[in-house]
Structures are given as structure tokens and as C-alpha cells.
Amino acid sequence: MTKLSFLIIYLVSTLGIATNIKADPINVTESPGGIRDVIPAVSTWSPIYINDGVTTAGDGRNWLSRNNNVSGNTFEFTLDRIQEGVTGEAGDANDIYQLDSISLYLPASNRALKDFTLEARNTSGTWQRLYSSQAVEAPYNFAKTVVGGIRSVIPAVSSTWSPIYINDGVTTAGDGRNWLSRNNNVSGNTFEFTFDPSLNGTAGEIVDQFTLDSISLYLPASNRALKDFEITVQTTAGWQATIPLQASNISSQQTFNIGPYNNVLRVKLETISNYGDSYVQVNELAINGIWAGDNPVFKATKTSGEQLFNLAAATVNNDGRRDNLTDLRFTTISNYGDSYVQVNELAINGIWPGDNPVFKTTKTSGEQAFDLTATTINNDGRRDDIARLRLSTISNYGDSYVQINEFQAFGIINQPLAGRFNAFDTATAATAITGSLQTRVANNAAISFDVIALNTDKSAVDASFSKEVKVELLANMNSVALNTDNCPVSSTIISTLPATTIANGRSTVSMPAVNNVWKDIAIRITYQPPTGALITTCAIDRFSIRPAAFTLVAQHDDWETAGNSQTINASTANANPTHKAGRPFSLLLKAVDSAGTIMTNYADIPILTNSYPALVTPAGGILGDFNLGTLTNSNGVISSDTTHYSEVGAISLKISDEDFAGVDAADGTSLINRTISSPEITIGRFIPDHFKATTVNNGSFDNACSGFSYAGQPFTYQSVPELKITAYNSSSAITHNYTGSFAKLTPSDFSVITPTSDAIVLQANNIDLISLNWNPSAPSLNDNNDGSLNFVFGADSYNHLHIPNSLVAPFANTVNLSFTAITDSDGVTTQALPHILQPSGGSVRFGRVAISNAHGSELAPLTVNIKTEYFNGIDWTDNTADQCTTLALAAQFQLSNPETGGGWVSGNTTMTIANGTTTGTLTNNSPVANGRTVLSLSAPGEDNQGYVNIRSQISGSDNWLLGDYNGNGSYDNEASARASFGLFKGSDTIIFRREVY
After folding, report:
1. What totals of helices (H) and strands (E) does the chain contain, helices first?
2. What is the pLDDT of residues 599-655, one digit of tens each?
3. Is 223 helix (H, G, I), strand (E, B) or coil?
4. If I label 385, which of 526, 648, 899, 977 is the partner at 20 to 30 A Cα–Cα?
5. Strand-strand pairing, 579-580 and 681-687
6. In Å, what is the CA distance from 774 to each residue of 705, 712, 768, 837?
7. What's the pLDDT at 23?
8. Residue 901: which residues within 8 A CB-CB, separation 6 or more?
9. What percent of the chain has a predicted confidence (pLDDT) above 90?
């Protein structure tokens, strides 16, 4: 290595000595040293030339700072004037400067920049607005977004045209930037504005208050113009009176003088009515007035070339914000001409106290020497121990070609090594005097490297040295201070070669194996010359011996408890063992050598390898939250009993340590060689900790008949009861992967108590509940693919028993479906059971069929009335609501009399009456009309007197209509009656008749 003292450059046209520029304004943004660390968001022309120092327009190096009417393009500059890679923003005091002015270089005026803002950040770390020495324009449009107008209330009425342009300052109609302020004849659309003309980020401060003079509306075509509206002003005294205004039915600007209002904080506009159709458009709104603050907006003139903006402190904001700067931010606002704005160059000028990092040649040929003696500030030894020198050109005289004839650097050779010996890996080049000692892996093998002897000035290998030296490995678990021999001041000797020969200045030595791991190992070489003191040297580079690997296993005692009874390594949907999601399990790692022996010196805590954990199953599932818990290390054994994983399925895991061999991070040892890793293991199968049941639908009952069901008559659901079962981990977070083959619930896993009674209504004894039969159908279980399943009842059938204790007034159905256990095949249970679904609805009536006796002449047909009845709580009454019962004469009625054999025959049989016959006809029977049907028996003829017995035959079809006609208390009797021909009932008006002889 050398110590550099000066350099000489020979040029075709030459250089000069760097000048000290501490007292002169410089362009701190100019490359090199000015760093663009925020690139403009809107630009189709390259911004890389904005600080290249070339100010000539039209050379294709302009920055397109604004296009398509989009403002707010921003540049930020930091300074690294001495170009060492650390900026003033990062704490380098050498890069802090005092801001004096900025210069803009603009191209042709038809595309020139107009308005822009500047912010600076100093060592306080806070961005602060800089203010222009230009006066604030009067009147000032405070609504403009670019000068601090803030829409604090967005219109309440839907708008299909963007409202963001109502205060963008663009007043041209028809460019798609109108605000659709009112549509569909709905009024009351409101805008409220707060103001931040100081542009410091906080609206409504004292410095932001202004005097309001007028407002201006810019309207598009008059057929859609705003008509009536209101303006309300808020000052420091509160909201002022509302001012009703009316716009004219014309397009273009309309100004309304409403002031002056002092100390204005907020302005509200509310629309009322319109001209033309139901759409009201507003192109732009201006809020005009006078403000006493400093101008935060810089305005360029409409000319090309350099424009200088003096940044001396302003009247109000003279607060030192231009001193000790580290960053400057430049933001464009508006332009002259078309929508394209070009900037040729930006210079930020100021005073910088540092040493000049730029060398400048004179414009002459021949030798030019540059003295490199240490400077005032940077006297930091950077010219010593030089191994490489870099020259970078910046600018030139004349044309675009820069030529250099010769370059020379002069200095003296330093002594790069502190001692007489060095050591490095055997693969190091044959003539090298320095090299690296890369990471070793604990493998119970000898440790080999090369040891060299150096010549007197330590600039080369001493090939004449063939002598015995002593070599030792000095180990530490952390780096320690080094003594003058480059050896650690404290250490443990872990391997020794008492005597080994260095032949011809360089030999490979093999040290005895080391049986543990060490973070920091130095090689010490000692030599006792024939005369004189002992020579001791430690190699320049140090190295680490790391564990060969980590072993890794996941275990538990049971599915809820950490421990080491069982390895949890299942990876498929049906494999065991299982562990509950969120419950703790154990991780056990061992730092081992290549033979599997635990390395007790390893005392660190490894971490998860990048990209781990990874989801193994289910495919397409989500990866849950994995927590290693608290890892502890005991002599190379690392464990945690608080590891947990939040989801269902299986994961893969890998653990690594990239830091143990950190001593080798800079010597060329690759990261993969420095890293200790475990094998990838699979951990699973994780299952839910528990289920919770929630009601999706209690369900409701349908009526079997016309708005009711008879007691004993089957009825089913109108809407089916439905229960959701959701899987959770132990922290009560949903396990979304409990789906597909990982969802183990089946319909048979749901235990429901068979309902045997109504849930509410008491029997006639007022003690017990009305009895009920439930005939379940097969339910279904629907996977929602989100960790939940819905249990849906089938087409179940119910009926209340047609027994004496059910003889009560009509009532509404209510049934409890009580889930007492829901447990899947993995044994996961459901919390908070029983859970009840309670379908209800419909009405139940206790009914019967009644047949009336009939009497009449044999000369006319005889009518027999048949009806359905229900018990109303007191007595039997006609069931006029029955529009559903169907009665068939042949199947559901029987007839008998002595003349027709005496036994019961089908209801459609022709019956003998004396010498005649009668045949029945049933009407209004399919279904019955309002609960009634009529049996008409034909006339048997003159003098054919007799009777026909009639009875129902419904026990096999409509047994819910049987009655207790024998008085034994059981409702199991068919209804019966007699139809008599030749008998007369008599007059209803005769109370008593007696025959006198």
C-alpha cells in the first residue's frame, strides 16, 4: 500500500489546482454531489439532466416538469458534496450548507414554468416552507388547491363528474373538468373550504386568516348553469349570516362582491336551483381577498434563460430556515402556454463550509500537479494506506470531447502489516501477503491454512525463511480488543502446534481438530530468532468455527400441551397426530457438528429462515400466524414450550442463524457458508381448538291445511332451520383452513334431542306440554370454504298427537331443536351447548268430522250434511277455514240397512229401501267447501219407506278427523248418522202435540 502525496495529469488541454470555494455561492445541486432522491411522478422526458450543469436549451436535455394539466411534480435534493456516500440528511456535518438563491433555466416561453414552491429541511429534520420575496398578488384566490385551498366537505349529492377540479385554477369550460354540482333536481350540494395560504400544512392558523372581498363562479354552457346558491363565511367570531346569491344565465366568469370579511377561516357554498335541465355544472370557484402573509409561491417570468430567485429571509418567517440545510424540495404548480412545461436546469446556490472535492484544471496543455496534503476539515488520514485510486471526469473546455494524455499519482510505500508473519486460506494466490480466513464448519477434522513469513519491510514473502514457528488458535465467543501484535488481549487457546516449519517463506499447516464452536478465532504465530526477543504476530484476518447444522423437531405431550412425548409431523388431511391451533407445542433445536454432537459453546438464539413457515397443506389455503414463543439456549440446546400456530393444516419450518460467523462477513465468505441451518421439517396436523354454533335461521312451519294444521295431521317447514358451525383456534380466531378434506364434521356428528312436545303450549291438563311426533329426514352439511359449515335440516315431518290431552283451543306451533353435542371425527367439540333452533309459525286446531241425521219423504232426494269441526276451547264449532280436506264417497264412507244385507258396504253402493232403491252422491267434497260437503240420497219412490245408516271411513287416511263418539275419552271413532225416508221432522213451531180418542 502507498501514502498518496500528489498527482499529475497530462492533458491535451489541461487542468488547474482546485480552488477553495468556502466563501462563494456554489450550485450545491449540480452533479456530482447533488442527489435527486425523489423522482417526479409525472414526466415523459428524462429528469436526469435537471442538475447536470448544462443550461443550453433545445439539446434534448430539458425536464418535462408538468404535462396533461397535472401539477405537483416534485424534486427533492440532498447534498453529498464531498461524495463519500453519507449526506447531510444522514448526519454528515460536512454536507450542510446555507441557502442563498435558486436559479431556473427555462426553454422557449410557450412552454415555460410559471408558479412553483420551495421547501427546505435543515438539521432539525423538519420540512419548512420557503417564502418568495415577490409580493402576494391581490386579490388572491384562496380556494386554489395549489395555494392552500382545502375542500373540507365533499358534496353529499352523487356526482358523476369529478369534484376535484372545482378549485384547480383552470377556468376553461368543456375540458372535462367541470363539477356536476347538482343532478336529478336534488339541491343542497355543499362545499366547505378551509385555507392554508402559508402552505405550512396546518390550516386556519393566525397566519392563514385573510380578508374576503368576493367570490367568482366560472360557469360552462348556460343551459346547465347554476342559478341560486348561498355563501356562508366563518371568521374568528364564528359563522356569519348566510348570503343568498343568484347567478346569471350566462357562461364565463361571474364575480359577487360580498365583503369585506376580516379574519376569515372557512367559506361554505350551497347550491339551491339551476337554469336549464336537471344537471348543474360549475367550472371553477374562486374565493378572492387580501392576505398579509409571506408569499409561498414563486413565479417565473415568461422568458427563456436563467431566472434568479433571491432567498433572503422574509419579513414574517425570518426564522433561520435557510441555514444548516440538508435537503431542498422543488414543486411545480402552473405554466405558461400549453399543457407541457419544460425546465432546462435548476441551480440551488449557497455557501458551504467544506473542503472543495472538485479539482479544476486550467485551459492549457502540459503537466499540472495537484498537491494532496491534508485539508483543514478532512485531515482524517484518507491519503494513507492507499490500495486503489479512482479518477472521475465532470466537465470540459471546448467541444464534447475530453482528452487526457497521461495520469500519474505519487506517494510513498507504507508498511501495511504490523508483524513478521501472516496466515490465510491455502487457496490464496502464491505471491500474496494478505488474504482471508473463511468460516470453518465444526467437523472434528484438522484445520488447515497457510502461514507466511514476510521480508523486512513487509512488502513481500520472505522466500529465504525456512524455520520453525509455533502456531496457536486463540478463540473468543465475542470480538475483543487487539494488542500491538494484532492479537486479542484475552482469549482461550483451543489448538496448538508447538513447532512447525515454514519452508521458503510459506507453508500449509494443519492444526489439531477443535471440539466446539467459536465466533472469533485468531491465528497466533511466534518465532524465537537465534538472538533477540520473541517475535509474535497474529494473522490480519480472523475466522469463525460454526455448528454444522441445527437439528429441529416439533413435539407435544398432547394436542393441547407442550412436551416431548410425541413428534407432531403429520402432513395430510387424515394423518395423525393432531394438535389444536393456537395451543402451545414444543420446538427443540440442537446446534451440532457434522457427527451430531451438541456444540455447547453455541449460546445464540436462531431465527426463522426467510420464507418460513410455509404452508404445506391444505393446497390453496392461507398461512396462519406462527410464533416461535420464547426460545432459550442451554449449552447448545435451544427450546421453546410456547410455540404456537393459528391455523388448520400443516406447515414447513426451517431455522437459521446468519450472524454467528459475523467475523467473516467482510472477508469474502459467502452468506450460505456463514449460515447455520436446520433441515426443513413438517409440523402438523393442526386442527381447530373448538367450534362455536350460531343460528343462521330458526326456520318456520308451514300449514298442512288452509292456514292451519289439524292435530295429528303431518306438517313440515316453510323455511328450513339452519345452524352454522365455525372452527376457531384457542384465541377464538377463525381457522379458515377448516374446509374441504380438513373439515371433519359430517351430518351424523350433530346430536339433536328428539322433540316430543310443543315448546310452549300445555295439554288440556294444564301440566304437560302438547305431545308431538318428529319424523326427521336426512339433513345436509354445506362447506362455506371459510372455516365454517352450515347444518341444514331435511324435509322433516311433524304432527301433534290427536289424543284427549291435545283437546285445547287453537295454538301456534313452536318446537325446540336442541343440539347437545357437535363433535367431529378428530374429537373437536363445540362450546356453549346446548344450542337451540326454534322453528315456529302456523296454527294447530283439534278437529273431527261430524255427520248429521236426515229425515224426509220417500218421494224426494234426501240431503245429509257432513262437516269438519274444531274445538275452540269451549265447544265444537264449524271449521269454515277448511279448504283442504278431500272426502271420497267410495273410499271414505260406508252405508248399511237391513234390506241391503245388513252389513256395511261402500258409500257408492245402491241401497234397497222396501221395493225401491237409493244411491248417494257427494258434492263439494274435493276439497270440502268451507268445511262442508253434502251427501244426497236419491228418492226410493212412493211407499218405499226405510232408512240408510251412514258412517265415515277415514281412520286410514285422515285419522286426525276421528271423534270421541262413544264417549270413552279416546278420539278414535268414525262419525255416523241415519238418513230416514218416510219420516218427517215436524214443524219447528209445535211445542207439544197429543192425540185424543
Report:
1. 2, 75
2. 999 999 999 999 999 999 999 999 999 999 999 999 999 999 999 999 999 999 999
3. helix
4. 526
5. parallel
6. 18, 12, 18, 15
7. 38
8. none
9. 55
> How high is the pLDDT of residue 361?
76
DSSP per-residue letters across 830-861: BSS--EEE--EEEEEE-EEEEE--EEE-TTS-
Confidence of residue 229 (pLDDT cuts 50, 70, 90): confident
Q: Mean pLDDT score of the chain, rounded to an integer?
A: 83
The grid cell for 125 is 429534520
Give the CA distances from residue 407 to residues 1, 2, 340, 365, 400, in Å, rounded to whole numbers and listed in that order: 19, 17, 46, 13, 20
pLDDT at 278 > cutoff 90: no
Element at 521 (helix H, strand E)? strand 518-527
Task: Decide: 6 and 15 in contact? Cβ < 8 Å.
Answer: no
Within a 13 Å sphere around the CA of 790, how many CA atoms are in the beta-carbon half? 14
pLDDT band at residue 372 under the 50/70/90 scheme: low
Amino acid at 518: W
Q: DSSP 3-state assignment of 932?
A: strand
Length, in residues, of the chain: 997
pLDDT of residue 417: 45
First to last CA, the chain: 166
Residue owning grid cell 429571509: 313
Q: How confident is the model at residue 519 (pLDDT cuts 50, 70, 90)?
A: very high
Question: What's the per-residue H, E or C state across 103-151?
Answer: EEEECCHHHEECEEEEEEEECCCCEEECCECCCCCCCEECCCHHHCEEE
pLDDT at 365 (0 to 100): 67
User: What does the pLDDT read at residue 12?
Assistant: 38
Q: How many Å apart are CA 229 and CA 269, to the nearest integer?
A: 7
| Short-list 704, 702, 744, CA closest to 576 | 744
- Residues 521 and 494 sit within 8 Å (Cβ to Cβ): yes
Q: What are the residues whose beta carbons fall under 8 Å from the beta carbon of 809, sequence distance 6 or more?
A: 871, 872, 873
User: Which three three-digit cell numbers place residue 788?
Assistant: 365454517
What element of type H or E holds 502? Answer: strand 492-502
Give the cell for residue 431.
505471491
Place of cell 500500500: 1
Burial (CB count within 10 angstroms: exposed 0-12, middle 13-18, buried 19+), residue 601: buried
The region, left, alpha or beta by phi > 0 then psi within -120 to 50, assigned to residue 45 is beta
Give the three cell numbers for residue 502: 515454514
Q: What per-residue confidence (pLDDT) applies to 63?
A: 66
714 contact partners, CB below 8 Å, separation of at least 6: 704, 775, 797, 798, 799
Alpha-carbon distance 734 to 779, whole Å?
A: 24
The sign of the CA dihedral 144, 148, 153, 158 is positive
Sheet of strand 676-677: strand arrangement: 607-608, 655-657, 676-677
Asked if 563 and 556 touch (Cβ cutoff 8 Å), the reply is yes
Which grid cell sits at 545? 468455527
User: Measured between alpha carbons, how far is 515 from 444 in angstroms, rounded to an integer?
Assistant: 6
Phi (first) and psi of residue 438, to 5 degrees: -90, 170
Tens digits of residue pLDDT in 36-86 = 655 554 444 556 667 766 666 555 556 656 554 455 567 777 777 666 667
Give one DSSP letter per residue of 524-565, joined into a string.
EEEE--SSSPPEEEE-SS-EEEE-SEEEEEEEEEETTEEEEE
This prediction's pTM: 0.58
Where are the extended beta strands (E) located within 582-705? 585-592, 607-608, 614-617, 626-627, 632-634, 637-645, 649-653, 655-657, 676-677, 681-687, 690-697, 700-701
Mean pLDDT calculated for residue range 711-736: 97
